[in-house]
């Protein structure tokens, strides 16, 4: 007998509908799975058999063939276990085919018959537009975010069998857990001194501009970067759903509901290419650039990252997405993040000043790890020196994050009125309309271009930064020379000797 059960598998961060076709026929007892299953998916035959036997159900002593359609889409993970088990029970005539009509089934099976959660439950359930969706009880909260009242949670295979056979009612959904209080985010009030770096941080947050902090060890670069997410506004409903989808597909911990605050990701500098941009397997798992979507990607010790990894960020920095190609296909992951990086000016940290122990060759090799095209995509490059001792000992409170967040939110609202999420997304035509240059501002930019301090890409980025600076000031329409000069002062470049120069 033939049975078909609806389910889904992950392709990148998206769910792909799958039809689990189970054929039970006379012949030498055996079990085979076809349809491009990976190793963990092929192992379902052992998990499913043990779960069915442990649930006091009958295992057919016949030839069992499972086809996962469409056959040209790779299937990964153990999320199809429950659908395979239900298909065997229907094909073995222990359940009626009508009991699973227009029903999606998703879950991993334990050897004792328990139904366990699966990574990527949100995109997987979202891909199944059936009248009801059966999931593990621990996945019900996430599934209800997209399937609402269509979700039917179960804890064991036996519970599911009894409910489908009308021998018992559907299990009650688990009681909603009390939401944990949100974790407090680091506050800018903890930062002593550093007025220029604090201003650059505010400009970066308000306009969505990528920021690089360069300075000696102990200057407070990491403290500043970790406080950026605290001044960003909450995610919009669309952004919350997208970020939750990505985190679910990546197997990251989720709150009891949608992710509402911008994420903060800080991978170690030894991270591989696949860990940063995604991939690593046939499923092309989302990387850190995708997990940081809607929030901040912090790269500490930027000069220690592999140059190939940094250059791989050039596409997502420009386009807000990443294409991961593997032998079995290509997937696109969202990668709209705010990059904040920190690095020492040289390997020893002194940056060519008195006490620097770096040979010229070592200094050149260190700074060559950052390619010109990569640095050109950074809107703000700021020097962070060690704070003055008087500032460290001053007990007067600094400006808190809440006050800065209000100014940031106001600039973001102005950007949304222009049709973009933040000023960094403004194109050349948008800037001509919403940020025309005054005569003096035009002359400043013409001089910077003539001197080779700006590329065509850099010109647009300087104009977007100037637009943000004007929004933080008075929100006027025309960009002044002061706005452009301030934007250029925040866009410094490494001079090859461990220092920074304008332009």
Structure description:
The protein has 21 helices and 20 strands. With 503 residues, the protein is an alpha/beta fold. The protein has a five-stranded parallel sheet with strand order 11-14-17-10-18. The protein has a four-stranded mixed sheet with strand order 1-2-4-3. The protein has a three-stranded parallel sheet with strand order 5-8-9. The protein has two domains: 2-164, Ribosomal Protein S5, domain 2 (2-Layer Sandwich), CATH 3.30.230.10; 188-502, 3-Layer(aba) Sandwich (Rossmann fold), CATH 3.40.50.300. Helix 2 packs across helix 3 and helix 7 packs across helix 20 (456-473).
What fraction, in percent, of the residue positions are helical? 25-40%
What is the CA-CA span between the terminal residues? 73 Å
Overall geometry comes to elongated
Helix-strand makeup class: alpha/beta
Q: Count the helices. How many?
A: 21
Strand order of the biggest β-sheet: 11-14-17-10-18
Q: Within the CATH hierarchy, at the fold level, what is the topology of the largest domain?
A: Rossmann fold
CATH superfamily grouping of the largest domain = P-loop containing nucleotide triphosphate hydrolases
CA radius of gyration is 28 Å
Q: Describe the sheet with the most strands.
A: 5 strands, parallel
Spans with pLDDT under 50 lasting ≥5 residues? none
Assembly classification: single chain
Q: Which percent range describes the beta-strand content?
A: 15-25%
- Overall CATH class of the largest domain: Alpha Beta
Number of domains: 2
* Mean pLDDT rating: 89
Got a strand count? 20
Q: Please identify, by name, the CATH architecture of the largest domain.
A: 3-Layer(aba) Sandwich
């Amino acid at each position: 007998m033939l049975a078909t059960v609806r389910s889904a598998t992950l392709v990148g961060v998206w769910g792909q509908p799958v039809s689990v076709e189970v054929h039970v026929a006379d012949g030498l007892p055996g079990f085979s799975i076809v349809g491009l299953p990976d190793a963990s998916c092929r192992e379902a035959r052992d998990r499913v058999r043990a779960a069915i036997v442990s649930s006091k159900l009958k295992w057919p002593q016949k030839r069992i063939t499972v086809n996962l359609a469409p056959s040209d889409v790779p299937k990964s993970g153990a999320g199809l276990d429950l659908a395979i088990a239900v298909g065997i029970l229907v094909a073995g005539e222990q359940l009626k085919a009508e009991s699973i009509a227009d029903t999606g089934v998703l879950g991993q099976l334990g050897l004792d018959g328990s139904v366990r959660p699966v990574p990527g439950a949100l995109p997987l359930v979202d891909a199944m537009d059936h009248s009801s969706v059966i999931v593990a009880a621990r996945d019900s909260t996430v599934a209800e975010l997209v399937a609402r009242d269509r979700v039917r949670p179960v804890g064991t295979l036996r519970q599911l069998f009894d409910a489908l056979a009308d021998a018992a009612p559907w299990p009650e959904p688990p009681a909603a857990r009390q939401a944990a209080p949100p974790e407090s985010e680091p506050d800018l009030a903890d930062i002593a001194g550093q007025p220029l770096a604090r201003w650059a941080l505010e400009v970066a947050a308000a306009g969505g501009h990528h920021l690089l902090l360069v300075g000696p060890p102990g200057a407070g670069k990491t403290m500043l970067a970790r406080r950026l997410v605290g001044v960003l506004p909450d995610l919009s409903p669309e952004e919350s759903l997208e970020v939750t989808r990505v985190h679910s597909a990546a197997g990251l911990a989720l709150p009891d509901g949608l992710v509402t605050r911008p994420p903060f990701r800080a991978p170690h500098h030894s991270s591989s290419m696949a860990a940063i941009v995604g991939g690593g397997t046939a499923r092309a798992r989302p990387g850190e650039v995708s997990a940081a979507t809607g929030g901040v990607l912090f790269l500490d010790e930027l000069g220690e990252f592999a140059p190939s990894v940094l250059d791989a960020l050039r596409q997502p920095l420009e386009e807000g997405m990443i294409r991961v190609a593997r032998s079995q296909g290509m997937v696109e992951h969202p990668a709209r993040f705010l990059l904040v990086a920190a690095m020492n000016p040289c390997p020893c940290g002194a940056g060519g000043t008195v006490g620097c122990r770096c040979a010229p060759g070592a200094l050149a090799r260190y700074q060559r790890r950052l390619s010109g095209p990569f640095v050109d995509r950074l809107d703000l490059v700021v020097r962070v020196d060690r704070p003055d001792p008087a500032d460290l000992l001053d007990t007067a409170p600094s400006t808190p994050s809440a006050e800065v967040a209000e100014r940031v939110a106001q600039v973001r609202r102005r950007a949304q009125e222009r049709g973009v999420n933040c000023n960094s997304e403004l194109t050349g035509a948008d800037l001509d309309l919403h940020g025309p240059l005054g005569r003096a501002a035009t002359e400043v930019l013409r001089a910077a271009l003539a001197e080779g301090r700006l590329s065509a890409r850099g010109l647009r980025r300087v104009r977007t930064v100037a637009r943000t600076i004007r929004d933080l000031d008075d929100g006027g329409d025309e960009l002044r020379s002061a706005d452009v000069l301030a934007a250029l002062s925040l866009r410094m470049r490494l001079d090859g000797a461990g220092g920074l120069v304008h332009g």
